[in-house]
Structures are given as structure tokens and as C-alpha cells.
Amino acid sequence: MIDTIRQQWTSGAVVYNAWLTIPSPWSAELLATAGFPSLTIDLQHGLIDDPTALQILHTIDQRRCPVFVRLAWNEPAAIMRALDRGAAGIIAPLINGPDDARALVAACRFPPEGIRSYGPVRVGVAHGVAEPAAVARLPVLMPMIETANAMEQLEAIAEVPGIDGLYVGPADLSLSLGLPVPVDFSAPSFRAALSRIVAVCRQRGLATGIYANPDLAADLAALGFNFITIVNDGDLIMKGAVAALQTVRA
């Protein structure tokens, strides 16, 4: 499944993503059934805990839809648990420099390349591989770029061997650059930061991801982003409920 996404990036296609914050396999299954080519479980700001994340992975495996995990922190034990449970990719928050990116990669690689403990209890069943080299090749690894420090060391982060791309956290990046939230994606300084991230990734053959919304997707794709999160499950429910009430009250 994850190789399909890598192939799409290689061909120049944009992969759209849905963000999961609700602690329910059912809402995740609905988004997969809607046709999303990828999902992301948010363990940082979402309401999903580890047992529910495992239930979501069990459910979505039947839909053949790759599921990423956005970690709460770039912490080795959490990374290894997510991978052993079958996560197709890791999005690691608050990567401030190349050392953070190298720590992410090391937690995803078995010795001698890294520090990951070998125990593919579920990933071996879910993905049909057990050899260390094959297991280590499975996940897509995406450090998040969301701080001014990361921007200062952007090239060094992008050159860390083993990462597949960079993923922009726009809210934190905007705040870190002294800009407002909600994010003004058209602000010249913010736009310049996004363009620079895209250019750095293109030069190194890396994917470029970002959290956004449907209204921004076409513009961001034209800018060069090829992994775009366009919906959040909680926002979909809230906006749908508000729209329905407005309709009947009009």
C-alpha cells in the first residue's frame, strides 16, 4: 500500500490525506470508504489513544488505505510502537535540526543502522514481511517543519539519509515566525518559507507535505506540495452540523 504512494510521488501526482482526531474506528472507516488515498492518526493534538489507534489500524487495513501516525513527540519508544502496530508512515513533530531527524530515522531502523528493537508482532502479519530489512523499508518517514529553528537548518534536515519527505505544520510555523494564527497562507514571508521548503525537497527528491484545507489544496499543489491534508474528521462534523442547522433555520 505504501509503495503505491511512493510511486504516485515519483510520477508527480498529489496524494490527499484526511486527519483523524476522533477516537473511533468507525469515523476513520467512513473517510477511507469515501475514497481518501491516505489517513493520518493524530496522537499529538487529537483525542486518540494508543489502544484506539490500534483498532483504527485493524479496521483500515481491510480498506487497503495507508495510515500514517503523527506522533505526540519524536520519542523512540512511541515510534517503535507505532511501527510494530502497522503504521505505514511516521510524521514526527517539532523537528528543530538534523540531530532530531537522525534520531527519528534511528528509531525506525534496526541495528547496526539504528536502535529499533526487532519485534514485528503485528506489522509482520499486516504487511506480510518479517525480515528486518524489509520491515525497515516499509514506513514513510516525514519530519515536521514547524519552527524557525527548523527553517534555519532546513537543508541539513533534508539531507538526513532515510527520510522520505518533509511535512509542514503551518500553525506552529506561523507562530514561530512571528506571524498570526489562523494562518495567512498568502502572507509574503509565510509564502516564501513554503516555497523554500518545496525547493529544498525537490532538489533532494523528497515529498513535501502540509496540513491545509480543500480551499487551499489547488494553490499548494501548484506551489509544489504533493502530500496535502485537506480535511479533519472533527471539522467535517462541525461544519456539516452548522450548515445543516443554517439550512433549516433560514
TrEMBL record:
Database matches in PANTHER family: 2-KETO-3-DEOXY-L-RHAMNONATE ALDOLASE, PHOSPHOENOLPYRUVATE CARBOXYLASE FAMILY PROTEIN
Molecular function terms from GO: aldehyde-lyase activity; metal ion binding
A Pfam family assignment: HpcH_HpaI
HpcH/HpaI aldolase/citrate lyase domain mapped to chain residues: 19-237
Classification via InterPro entries: Aldolase/citrate-lyase_domain, HpcH-HpaI_aldolase, Pyrv/PenolPyrv_kinase-like_dom, Pyrv_kinase-like_dom_sf
Name of the protein in its database record: HpcH/HpaI aldolase
Family: Belongs to the HpcH/HpaI aldolase family.
This protein's GO CC annotations: cytoplasm
Alphabetic keyword roster: Lyase, Metal-binding
Domain of life: Bacteria
Source organism (scientific name): Chloroflexus aggregans (strain MD-66 / DSM 9485)
